[in-house]
Amino acid sequence: MLNRRRFAHLTLAGLGAAVHLPSALKAAAAPGGKGDLLYNGIQLPTPWPPQPSTPTPKPAPLPPHLATPPAVIPIDVGRQLFMDDFLVEQTTLTRAFHQPVWHPANPILQPDQPWEKQGSAPMASAFSDGVWWDPRDRLFKLWYMAGYRRATALAVSEDGVKWEKRNWGVVPGTSIVHTGDRDSASVWLDLEDPDPQRRYKLFRAHREEINGRGEWSFEIHVSADGVHWGPVAGKSNGIYPRSTVFYNPFRRVWAFGLRKDSSTVIGRCRRYYECKDGVADAAKNPEERSWWVGADSLDPARPDTKLTPQLTNIDCAAYESVMLGLYTLWRGKADPATGRPELNDVCLGYSRDGFHFTRPDRRPFLGMSERKGDWNWGNVQSAGAGCLIVGDQLYFYASGRRGGPMEFPDGDGCTGLATLRRDGFASLETETEGVLTTRPVRFTGKHLFVNLAASAGELRVEILDAQGAVIAPFSSANCAPVKGDGTKLAVRWQGADDLKAIVGQPVKFRFTLRQGKLFAFWVSPEASGVSRGYVAGGGPGFTHSADV
Q1: Is 8 a residue whose pLDDT tops 70?
Q2: CB 289 within 8 A of CB 76
Q3: What is the tally of helices (H) and strands (E) in the chain?
Q4: What residues does CATH 2.115.10.20 cover in the chain?
Q5: Which terminus of the chain, N or C, has fewer Cβ atoms within 10 Å?
Q6: What element of type H or E holds 351?
Q7: Residue 410 CB-density burial (10 A; 0-12 exposed, 13-18 middle, 19+ buried)
Q8: 115-421 domain in CATH 2.115.10.20?
């Protein structure tokens, strides 16, 4: 019998519709003094957040939930992805990691307006900031640094590729929407806030002189439209530049990722704290901040610098059933002799509890160009909100810099776009034939879907009970072969209209794949294939923070 505490009812603000979402939105309190029981069966420890020691170059051990997965994994939230073995009991398939490609239209923003050429260097760069699909206005929206550490501006687009810098009237004749000086910033479209005046939130890393010293803090502003921002509504002191903020909808907390320079050989790394209200509760004392993540010995140095990489930033976002972590890694200083900017690129990590991340692929995910004059010749930095879903593709936005004169080589900042297949981070694949059996899972949906590339092959699925016996009629022989290449393909069996006969039971899926790549699977409550997972920065067709 499914525990009804595992679900919560939520009316999403401003959308006028009541939708039922799984317990990702309200983690169940566990008995016996343990931490929250998450949507995916992971039991958090106490105290939470964990209190690890200062990060070191030694790679972190496997997260507890990978070392000892739950006995039965609930899969009601989101498409189930294969970047780790959380869901895999055994397989003869091979895991492959995939990378996006830069769009031929890049850079999609460059500093070509007078207000973007103020300060030490020209900038039209998403320095975290945020790129979102606004379902109310039906527009892509991109906030960015206009002029080096000067103002925050907003560009909009109908397709996510061609962008318009409108005159918003805040600074007449410009696209500037906030005039406060800034380093990094985080702009969040908060569809879950019941107050429409707090629909957008801006966390601005700001430096001010206090008692003759430069002190950094987050100044937090709220807005109904992302254009007209109110006065400072909250503040968090004691931060460093390049600190950022994200919302974790799986646990309904705001997480602050603070740059910190460690006294150990690791250099730049991150500290962490969380709160329920990212505005009113943002202030935290230093003793409440946990050491979090950093680069480690598995991060390769560039052959031309041989410098130990350091973690400059991490932007996080909820995508389907996981948290994505976009790691900006520093690999070398700016070079005044050549005009090349700092050497930063973006790597990818994954988390199933919002704190512990794994990084199985250490290649740059959003990389630099090695050709002088390219928009991303150096200093590639991630944009906030992670990615957007546009049809069968994911859109990732990042800034880069062309470089500049000797006195400021780290300039001429632009923004670019990279695309990846939806769910396309990792696949389990074969050129011949292979089998994947999941760990025991439980679901309340009725329709199985897969993201599959098998134009020359096919996939069959059977469902097993806890002892490994096939449950009739869900055998491989009764399964209609799934063929072709699609990001949402239905799986059907002769003799069963849906999976309602096994709802709530612990079962295993056994996938037999011939000549193909399997990217994800999920069980939907509807024949349309909605996943009930989170959609990061959203996209056309999505009106909620989740695919409902």
Answers
A1: no
A2: no
A3: 1, 33
A4: 115-421
A5: N
A6: strand 343-351
A7: buried
A8: yes
